[in-house]
Design a protein that fits this description.
homodimer, 339 residues, alpha/beta, Rossmann fold, 7-stranded mixed β-sheet, 6-stranded parallel β-sheet
Chain lengths: 339, 339
């Protein structure tokens, strides 16, 4: 604990203009500010790793969604892992490791109750943004609350090498399912099959997805973990089994053109097949976060839960990292190393 | 009980050819057969009322759906209320009233276990095909198992004057919801509002449905009971609230062109709004049938549960009655009076 007075400056990326289509560096601006005086209950942290996630594209539209949009001139939102450098709160001391929503900036002043303290000697800090963080919990909540996979069922996961998909598929394997991934490119597909242990992985680039799915899922599809939308969604929907469950987690293929989205699948099959299609926003179930960390940290420690990260160096490269995530240019969980 | 020997003939409508588009009289053929000898466990009934329902269109396609298709040369399937005229089964005597799946024919031989005995002095026999029958149970199961309407919510019901929609909306009113119907034509809309007691009813013919919905549902839509599909579906989907539930019961607007169905709504909103879209086939929950009859028969008796029937006279007019149901030409539950 300190008296709240901090000397120094922070750098932050603020939204300069709302991007049309793919966001880029020109849509953000780096600003420098003096660090504020801490109010009672506040903690100052320096950012170690910044999380880059597809949902961030939605925050750049000027509309009310499940969360408020980022305002032009405001610091871009995002989760990060940081180290405490100042605190007015008992229980938070310099050197403590925390995770929370702290935005695209080198330092953040946060209310202590919005931060979760991490074990410095536990999993690598960046994993609390990926496999043990929001994406991991998303996969866990989707499988637990909607998918309810049973042994012997066929599960398809799109964006299978991504931070969410890679965990979703591994959970389905643990449940005894046959798991088919869909990913972009041979390298990702190879990793999904060989390292994650999926039964098969379909490369959606330049391939007849419907035909490949039919070959990989001879008994149809019981659970679909949806991360991409578009043509992949339509191909999977056409092969769902009766009583299939669809976890609608993301539709990254269309985040840049959502103001004029392409038409979707005709839903007549939903009646015939009694399909359940359900949207998932992980923050609706905050209790799943500590539950997942407790469950999965031992799996990360013993190496049985695999993950992969793409680490980009430097806060100034966060916009480019976001563009990569939206175009599938990353491999696994995208994080920006800030300090 | 008899010794199983029955004298006489039955008339039956068999499928002559698979219809393209709207089914008509030319797609069926009336045949005459001698009544068979009853085997042990069988009951012979003469048909009083035949139920005509939109789902029947699906049985005319040559494909496996949730139920087997009707074969060319086979008797058209359907529920009916009948009177026992012969029986080899204790507990079923001449004059007993029964309901069951007995097809488009004047007489049917049925296994006793497939029949439900009705109270001769209870509700009018035809109601066991409508408000107290499969359509009523469908509405009840949809609202109970998927909709879970809470007081104060806004519920939209399409085909609101139909056998399913009229019950679904009345159940939502009983639950304390604001209920908006969608129906075809001023006469139906008036009945939905004045007799059924819905808060409003939108005529989808020659109207901007989206604008009318916006006016009728200023707080958005929490539950949608889907019976029609097409343009109505897309208009409703665009105004669903977060955590909305969609009971996918039927899409009658496209039953005749389902082999090349129109594109559906883009489902990006399902993620953002955590919507649940769930298919319903009422026979999956057989326990709901007796439950509903016990619950709703007193409401029919005391007049608090309203219903309306269109009665067509003569088995030979069943195909035309089906065409009417598929085009919205009926009003309320469509039944054919056979005997």
């Amino acid at each position: 604990m300190t008296d709240g007075t901090i000397h120094g400056v922070r750098h932050a990326l603020v939204l300069k203009r709302r991007p049309h289509g793919m966001p880029g560096a020109g849509d953000f601006e780096m600003v420098e500010e003096r660090l504020p005086v801490l109010a009672p209950g506040e903690v100052l942290t320096r950012t170690l790793f910044l999380s880059i996630d597809p949902y961030m594209r939605g925050r750049l539209y000027d509309r009310t969604s499940y969360a408020a949009p980022v305002q032009v001139g405001g610091v871009m939102t995002g989760e990060s892992v940081g180290e405490v450098v100042g605190s007015t709160v008992p229980g938070f001391a310099a050197g403590d490791l925390v995770v929370g929503t702290r935005g695209w900036q080198t330092h953040a002043v946060t209310e202590a109750k919005a931060l979760v303290k991490l074990d410095r000697h536990g999993a690598p800090p960046s994993t609390y943004l990926g496999v043990l963080g929001m994406p991991g919990v998303t996969a866990y909540s989707g499988m637990t609350d909607i998918g309810r996979v049973k042994s012997g069922e066929t599960v398809v996961v799109s964006a299978a090498s991504g931070a969410v998909g890679s965990v979703a598929g591994q959970l389905a394997k643990r449940a005894g399912a046959r798991v088919i991934g869909i990913a972009g490119g041979a390298e990702k597909c190879l990793w999904v099959q060989e390292t994650l242990g999926f039964d098969d992985c379909i490369d959606h680039r330049g391939m007849d997805i419907a035909a490949a799915l039919l070959a990989a899922c001879p008994h149809g599809i019981d659970v679909y973990f949806e991360n991409v939308g578009g043509a992949v969604q339509q191909a999977v929907f056409s092969q769902l089994n009766p009583f299939a469950r669809v976890i609608m987690c993301g539709m990254v293929a269309q985040y840049n053109d959502e103001l004029a989205p392409p038409p979707g699948a005709n839903l007549a099959f939903v009646v015939r097949k009694r399909v359940r299609i359900e949207g998932l926003i992980v923050t609706d179930k905050p209790e799943r976060f500590p539950e997942w960390r407790a469950l999965a940290a031992p799996w990360v420690a013993d190496g049985s839960l695999k993950y992969r990260e793409t680490v980009v160096d430097g806060l100034e490269n966060a916009p480019e990292a976001l563009a990569q995530v939206l175009s599938g240019g990353n491999f696994g969980k995208m994080v920006v190393k800030v300090a």
